[in-house]
Specification:
The chain is of the alpha/beta class. About 35% of the residues lie in helices and about 20% in strands. The protein has two domains: about 170 residues, VC0802-like (2-Layer Sandwich), CATH 3.30.2130; about 220 residues, HUPs (Rossmann fold, 3-Layer(aba) Sandwich). Helix 3 crosses helix 4 and helix 8 crosses helix 9. The structure holds adenosine-5'-triphosphate (ATP) and magnesium ion (MG). Adenosine-5'-triphosphate binds next to helix 5 and strand 10.
Length: about 400
């Protein structure tokens, strides 16, 4: 007998033609995550298995619960045994260690050549338990103990406890995206949701030293580190020095258009960096109506400067819904640290709510944005932010 962890794919199993690509990627992602542990990862079309585990199984489960593509995990006991009388005794022995009054046996049979069908197996194992353990009875609706059996080609797996996985698609199966990552609450959540759909992300942060501080930058690094936890252990953070552009716009363009013009440059730079990393989509934390630059007219006017799809995973979420996810993924406490962001300095008193594209084009003739944008795209710092076990952000408090 050996203790194994069995992983269920959920949504993945609907990928018919290219299921193998999804499963291979999932296996590679699991191997990366469990590189410090002694175990093997095997799979077939129905399940993935972590076997030969000779280290802390709870720790491994916790790690597996940060991997997209796994919908449910179970800790099971695998026996190289198909003799039905022996299987009945195996179940009896395992069940004898548990306290319960009611139970149900549920069987899945991937081995279709097995002489008994699933119903017969469940019924017969149930009868064996009733005969050998006193004061128990069957309850098919709400049992204290659910006994699961899976009959495979040359083994049987018995399991009781199930753990929730985080679902989604394996990271990397859907290509690459660039997340515009600020120090706010929304963009880390947007990043998490994009990774969940199988997108491998890079992140990009605009800083404006000396108007923004090193603490503000460190905060974004720590947010990227939280995301690295889900993004195969690493996030490349592109740090763009935005000071020149911001000061030029501040000096030369009307104050109420400051944010709109600034964001048009942010989009242009982001698209340029995205092309350099061979990515397909931009991702950001915009949410409809949240601030002046996120009215539909504003979004339209800003979005016009790029041709790349811009995915806004939290566009239709209430702030409270976004905060709930931020807490779940542990970014909230970092996001609420009080350091100035480049959007929060130079904020006009009355930003335009319905900006016109024609005016933007007129104002953009007042400064040479093209060369500044180019400089940012081709000349910037890239930090490889790796996941870590310790909670480094406490240093910032
Ligand atoms: P909050 O959670 O407070 O709303 P925010 O980061 O969402 O913070 P917004 O001004 O609403 O701030 O910006 C909208 C989006 O634009 C952000 O979610 C982020 O994707 C992007 N963005 C804003 N500022 C920056 C920045 N300094 N660097 C990178 N991306 C930024
Ligand atoms: Mg926001």
């Amino acid at each position: 007998m050996q203790e194994i962890i069995m992983l269920k794919y959920g949504e993945l199993s609907t990928k018919k033609a290219n299921i193998n690509f999804f499963l291979k990627t999932l296996k590679n992602n699991i191997n990366k995550k469990l590189k410090d542990y002694n175990c093997n990862v095997l799979y077939d079309k129905g399940r993935m298995y972590v076997t030969n585990i000779d280290s802390n199984i709870d720790e491994i489960i916790e790690k597996l619960q940060t991997i997209f593509g796994i919908h449910e995990l179970v800790v099971g006991y695998s026996y190289n045994e198909l003799d039905f009388n022996k299987i009945k005794d195996i179940v009896l022995e395992l069940v004898n260690t548990k306290a319960f009054n009611t139970f149900k046996v549920q069987t899945k049979r991937s081995n279709k050549k097995y002489p008994l069908d699933s119903m017969e197996i469940s019924r017969s194992v149930g009868a064996h338990l009733l005969k050998n353990i006193s004061n128990i009875k069957v309850d098919v609706h709400n049992p204290d103990l659910l006994i699961n059996l899976e009959i495979h080609k040359d083994s049987v797996v018995v399991y009781f406890d199930t753990y929730k996985g985080i679902g989604g698609y394996p990271v990397g199966t859907l290509g690459k995206g660039l997340l515009m990552l600020s120090g706010g609450i929304d963009s880390p959540v947007a990043g998490y949701l994009a990774i969940k759909r199988g997108v491998n992300i890079h992140a990009l942060y605009f800083e404006s030293p000396p108007h923004t501080s090193i603490e503000a930058k460190n905060k974004v690094i720590e947010l990227a580190r939280k995301l690295a936890n889900y993004n195969n252990g690493i996030v490349h953070l592109h740090v763009i020095n935005f000071t020149n552009i911001q000061e030029e716009i501040y000096k030369k363009a009307p104050n109420d258009y400051l944010i709109t013009l600034m964001r048009r440059c942010m989009y242009r730079i982001s698209e340029g960096v995205l092309k350099r990393i061979n990515g397909q989509i931009l991702i950001n934390g915009e949410s409809i109506g949240q601030v002046a630059s996120q009215t539909l007219t504003s979004m339209n006017c800003i979005n016009k400067v790029v041709s790349t799809p811009v995915i806004r995973p939290v566009a239709c979420f209430d702030k409270n819904e976004i905060i709930d996810i931020a807490k779940k993924i542990d970014t909230y406490e970092i996001s609420i640290l009080p350091f100035e962001d480049c959007c929060t300095i130079f904020v006009p008193e009355h930003p335009v709510i319905n900006p016109s594209e024609e005016k933007c084009i007129e104002y953009e003739k007042l400064y040479d944005y093209e060369s500044m944008v180019k400089e940012c795209i081709f000349n910037h710092e890239i930090i490889k932010v790796e996941e870590t076990k310790e909670n480094k952000f406490e240093d910032l408090l």
